[in-house]
Amino acid sequence: MSILIAGTVRVPPENLPGLKPHMAKMLAASRAEDGCLTYSYAEDVAEPGLIRVFEAWRDQAAIEAHFKSAHMAEWRAAGAQFGVSDRRLSRFEIAAERPL
Hints:
Layout: E1 2-10, H1 16-31, E2 36-43, E3 50-57, H2 60-67, H3 70-82, E4 85-94
Antiparallel strand pairs: 1-3, 1-4, 2-3
């Protein structure tokens, strides 16, 4: 079983250029973590400042380690600095997967 985290966060569009280097650093550090299968952010094309989040993890222990990581603390601080808000993330447990 793997675990998906998917959802959105918002950032004022004018703050996005300053936040992007922090996003890139978070992506690289998270993708290097043991148990991280996928980690990505994408800005919604139709709604500037709406960031779509998609993560896949091997198990809950990997997510818990991720939440305790130094780069997560740095990310939270950067998010506060650049006005990240309206965090709407959900956790999904995946029992099986197959290509479409």
